[in-house]
Amino acid sequence: MGTELTAPVGEAGRRHIDLGLLRLCGIELAVPVDWVREVVPCPTAMGPCFGSHPALIGSIGVRGDVIPVVDVTVLLCFGERTGTGGTIVVLRKDDVLLGLRIDTVSGLYRIPVSAVRELVDSGGAARLVDRAFVREAHLVGIVDPDALFAMPGLPLVRCTVRDADHGALGRASPFVLVTVAGVQIAIDSHLVESTAPATSLRRCAVPAPGWARSVNYLGRDVRVFDQLATLGLDGATPEESQGPVILLRIAPGKLVGWHVESVRSVARIASDKFGPLPSGLAGRASLFGGTATDPGGGQNLVLDSAAVCADPAIVAMAALCREATEAGGRSIAMAKGKTDATGAFLIFDTGERLLATPLDAIREVVPFRGLSSRVEDYSGLCGLSDHRGAPVSVYAVEAGVQPDDAKLLIIARDQEGQGARGFLAQRLATIINAPALPVPGGSPGARFIPATIDGTAHSIRIHTLG
Predict the structure, then answer these.
(1) Residue 259 pLDDT
(2) Structural contact between residues 213 and 259, judged by C-beta atoms closer than 8 angstroms
(3) What pLDDT is attached to residue 333?
(4) What pTM did the predictor assign?
(5) Which segments within 103-219 are labelled E, that is strand?
């Protein structure tokens, strides 16, 4: 197979951005699909680094190309190196390749340009994560590949590009590659709305043959199938599988979910890598349009998007996609309309419990590098630390929390008459838009927000940093 290389397609003038969703150290990131050449497993042993950049962890060979690999946890200050294992996303810029080691690829996501917010460095420097958006109450940062390739000291390897490679990629399209019951399947990315974790699956109040479970996606109840029989094949995803739910866009506002065993990768497949269905399947697999050879050499059945969107059983399932309701029969949107107005909150772990603080009260969150001097008093002041060349007062939100155990420092917005203040935290859980509700039987003014963290429902007290 020829190496697939081209310049990334610009986003100017687009109404939507197609992104590959990544997870790293429990944090959600994304990278524009136009920059992704392919996704490959991270080997247990890598080749030499060919450089001394602190984020460089080695190199890999993919079909004759030497690809340097960087560990983004070092660049984003998430913590120590994560080492090998996981997955490598191969990015391309013109005729240069670079590997990004991450934990997992969870699928594709299409988001309106209007929903993306720019992140600006206060010092004017280029940012590796330059944009962000909210997805199911999680803040997702978009990695800027241009900034990554422009970092000084990375040993980028230039590859030989042939005219045939440019032509092949010009006729290529991105696909999500999944596995169900040992069957490898390629799904056109334009059919994929998003993905949802298996932990969000729940039993339908009124189950039907083939779709007994559902997920809540952006306030809509989406029916989910796990039987390959729905697509004309044999086999099923085990109910206990922790594989994700692929949300398929059948019509505007109408989705169905497919619980798969795994998302193997997101890859661009050139048109000359497609072939016909095997003769044994041609008569019964009417929802598949043929086969495709992925960049790793695997053979995949290709889902026929038009046939799926026209299939009567799937259309009937999509018709059940509607606003989720509470037990009393009201829609969630109606219920929210009768509560306090929603606000944006940052939920963080103090080491003792989860707390929420209004997002507009926070200036930034940075790794905690330790105290430069220690102080102990009744107000929770622990001492001073250095931040961007200036001293900052460091406070413990909870009594008894040791500064040496903290991982993060939440910098509050400056208030008149006060210097910079930082508050210790162990980790960030999520960012969520939720109503602030009064604490039953609590002191006047005490508020909490309802939130689901890692599949578990919580009532989280609001703490205004101050």
Answers:
(1) 92
(2) yes
(3) 40
(4) 0.49
(5) 104-112, 117-118, 129-135, 138-143, 157-158, 172-180, 183-188, 192-196, 202-208, 211-217
